[in-house]
């Protein structure tokens, strides 16, 4: 089993994030900053954008999760204080947002996000995610790999990650999905499900179990070439660029909110095989960047679109 | 009227080009090279590609158009020789290609290509083409600008290029097209028609008059967002890149062979206006690059696709 | 003279911007937001970043410059109120920032920035800026063009912009610079000077007259190929990409703070002429983007670097 | 040990390549095509470029390595014929090129290229190469991994590739290099040595043992930021893009002929760690693309530059 021996990047887990969005109104940014400020949190970065057509506000604040409170007490006291301050902050935010009809998400990063990866037979996205994770580029734990095939088990074993096989047939799909949901929710406690070229189409039941938490990679520049075999269609059409699109999976196949897209040049010399090969490089990078944005809490979904704040 | 006063780039017009394509067969490249060689032409560049699935060959040869013939005569003799050699070459090529069922195009560049530009109200593509032309980046003469509106006449006048107004209504479209074809063919003797954001849809009649010679710019990454208002559709979909596509205009709107495509990043901050603004930069560059490839004789069309050889 | 007849983009001039930077400290973002809020200004966007190594804060807030004040008075009263509120805001900010040792810039956009362009013989950057300006992509007035040569006067006349000739020799350089400064400061009242491939090297005297206000375009990917003839050097080295760099001009030639950079692919087929031609496309786009960022008040300079906030 | 179980891409090994370069002259392309043609080889692609300033020709021909010879014999006869034809072709080419002072390389691809990889502690380039190899994107055998550290042995073991440890000190460098050369030449019979972030500087002795066969990746956009710690220097300078450069290693450190370069955007938010992380993605892709071009026989070196033909 491979275990990277280089010194790890300094963990960023001292940073908590607050995301707020909803109807715009007077003083929202100031109110949120004030609130964190008064509780003793040091704000280290923020970005906010107003959709002036829809009159909606989108706000993201990153702050040091350790409140700077004068304390004569020992470590225990300080921990106790920190917990109490966090609770009080959450309550105050609830009230602030309720009054203004705003949604908020507060991520204390007490523990790292738990990511489950679902794959079929293609391995390129899986390797990319596991290697970026191993290099500390993804701030999460990878808690399990689920597949409808057994062939990528050795990849999982390379990194010591549990591999769960759920063969899918027309007959057993709903039942297998139930098992998968149970595993993901109850056992792995996954917050994020990444479809790393998972080739099965989910039922609504599965999708609704993880709203805005399933990240899929589609091997085309959506909305061009929806559905299966986009590289064949791209070859037929004679395009000069091919793309890849990472999006949240929703009930409408290939129509979920787009997080990240990229393209690569192709020429007449590239047959379908060539497009597939060039596409692999795209897919793994686009998927990894989308997951990174999600894990950094830089994404807010609304109206089937994503606001993605800068890294 | 603006006239650029910088020293011009060395003309490339000493180079002629031969393009050949059709069923692959034994010794085609050698035969073509031999033929030019024996006639005294110095080959300075060539590229050939075989579509091994369709079993088709695509060949482009650039050669010095002055044959290197031992000649004791004066200038007149040499000119006479050159003309005779060119004729003989053309005949020999005709025979070579007829035997093998190949198509060929021989461009002696005795005179520069004659390009006509058609525009409506948007000026960005027109400026780009005229400025690149003025900077000697486009190896052609721009023989006229046709428009269904009068508002870009001052741009034409800036460069001293004739501007022809053809207002289009539902009633007069066919008749106006006839006049346009007459102007383009008989008066301007245009080889290439560039639709620089020309907003009228042509009848078959017009399109068939200029096969593989009308270059259109569509303001999306085709086949995504065909038809009108692609930036509005892109905004609605929440894409993270927008594109532009230059293609030969055919009877199927937005479905002609693609010459060149490119994309640019957009974010949630870009409204429709922002997409349109970013799109302008794309459109003018993609269109100019496509025209350049066409004028360099680097494009071969087949099966509704373009083979575009390297520059 | 060319005058664009399309409907103009909606002016953005209802937005004022506040930029703040300096030593980080508790509650700066909240304090600034509160201050604007209390004065009745609607904040429509903000971004802030903390350099945690140097312990510096960088903040940019965009807000509606019309305060929303309950007012029973007429238009005159409201104007009077607006002016008084702006003054009061400025004073309050002065105090807030003085106490914390912060620098701030408040741009009310009462009038558009005044941009002067300096050129020599190359026209591509000049055209790009004038055309983007004409298309309302640059939120400024272009108040004059200065050159050491007369050949681009027709470009200026195309857009009706005054053209000022200052021929430079070794002997008259200092004196001509004095005249240029006088023209720029006293007559044109320029806030920004754009060197659109201006080929003269300034004395310190000139540079110090416009701190962080002179934007230069260098035709290489700095710090590679500093100095003159970078394309020749790039050709010699056999690089596979060439670049362009827009930066604020400082006393150290080609070493000022970088605002924007980009590159374009080149191949063995590109001779020096080819690099120059491809470079032109780069230079004009990089320079225009840098000017746009500057005009949007998205740039803060420190430690010879630029913080460039998102557009 | 990981072993990919997907169906492999169709091997390209039925294609042989001929590269020719040297002083330009009449009829070289025709002569080479004729020669291959007469021996019964089907040419499936070719590209040729003339450096008209230096008057040099560069030619690459890809052809089916099985000659199409009328043969009534069995398999053995045909094999015998093929070998004899290849020998005769080689001799004829020798004579053709000797007469014209041309250099040629004929790659029959009887066996795949043998690639050895040298690494130190960073693993990202190593993984990329091994995974692309495993996915059949690199047409070679990876015959061994050499390192001055032991920590990447598990990566090698994941793919079942021998790992050879050569710890380097000031004292033992020359001796270790001798051992490495012996291993590479005599045991592994490597044709190509890839320095996948190998952090030792070689002596001339080592470099001369593998002319134009050692591919190095430098983590900057050369010639910017030569030498060590380029990301630190890039951070200090405040660049807006960082680069990576793959080149053949020569006696002049970081000055060898450049095969491939690419860049990625960075912002003020990227500290040195951020640059290093973004750089990793660049480095592994640039190195892999350079190796691919080398293995495809698409590179010809001259005058410390690389002609890289299209893929």
Automatic annotation (TrEMBL), chains A, B, C, D:
Pfam families: Formyl_trans_N. Coiled coil: none annotated. InterPro entries: ACT-like_dom_sf, Formyl-FH4-Hydrolase_C, Formyl_transf_N, Formyl_transf_N_sf, PurU. CDD domains: FMT_core_Formyl-FH4-Hydrolase_C. It comes from the Eukaryota. GO terms for molecular function: formyltetrahydrofolate deformylase activity. This is Formyltetrahydrofolate deformylase. It comes from Seminavis robusta. GO terms for biological process: 'de novo' IMP biosynthetic process; one-carbon metabolic process. Gene3D superfamilies: 3.30.70.260, Formyl transferase, N-terminal domain (3.40.50.170). Keywords: Hydrolase, One-carbon metabolism. Residues 114-291 form the Formyl transferase N-terminal domain.
């Amino acid at each position: 089993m491979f275990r990277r021996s280089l010194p790890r990047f300094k963990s960023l887990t001292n940073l908590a994030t607050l995301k707020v969005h909803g109807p715009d109104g007077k003083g929202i940014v100031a109110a949120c900053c004030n609130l964190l400020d008064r509780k003793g949190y040091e704000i280290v970065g923020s970005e906010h954008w107003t959709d002036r057509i829809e009159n909606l506000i989108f706000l993201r604040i990153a702050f040091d999760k350790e409140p700077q409170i004068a304390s004569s007490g020992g470590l225990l006291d300080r921990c106790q204080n920190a917990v109490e301050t966090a609770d009080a902050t959450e309550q105050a935010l609830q009230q602030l947002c309720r009054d203004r009809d705003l949604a908020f998400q507060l991520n204390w990063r007490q523990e790292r996000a738990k990511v489950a990866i679902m794959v079929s037979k293609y391995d390129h996205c899986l390797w990319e995610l596991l290697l970026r994770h191993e290099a500390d580029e993804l701030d999460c734990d990878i808690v399990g790999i689920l597949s409808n095939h057994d062939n990528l088990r050795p990849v999982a074993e390379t990194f010591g990650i549990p591999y769960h096989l759920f063969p899918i047939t027309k007959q057993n799909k709903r039942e297998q999905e139930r098992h998968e949901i149970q595993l993901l929710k109850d056992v792995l406690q996954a917050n994020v499900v990444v479809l790393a070229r998972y080739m099965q189409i989910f039922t609504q039941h599965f999708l609704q179990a993880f709203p805005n938490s399933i990240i899929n990679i589609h091997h085309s520049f959506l909305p061009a070439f929806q559905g299966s075999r986009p590289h064949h269609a791209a070859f037929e059409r004679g395009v000069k660029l091919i793309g890849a699109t990472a999006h949240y999976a929703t009930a409408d196949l290939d129509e979920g909110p787009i997080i990240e897209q990229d393209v690569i040049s192709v020429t007449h010399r590239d047959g379908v095989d060539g497009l597939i090969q060039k596409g692999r490089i795209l897919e793994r990078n686009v998927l990894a960047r989308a997951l990174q944005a999600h894990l950094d809490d830089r994404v807010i979904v609304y109206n089937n679109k994503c606001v993605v704040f800068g890294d």
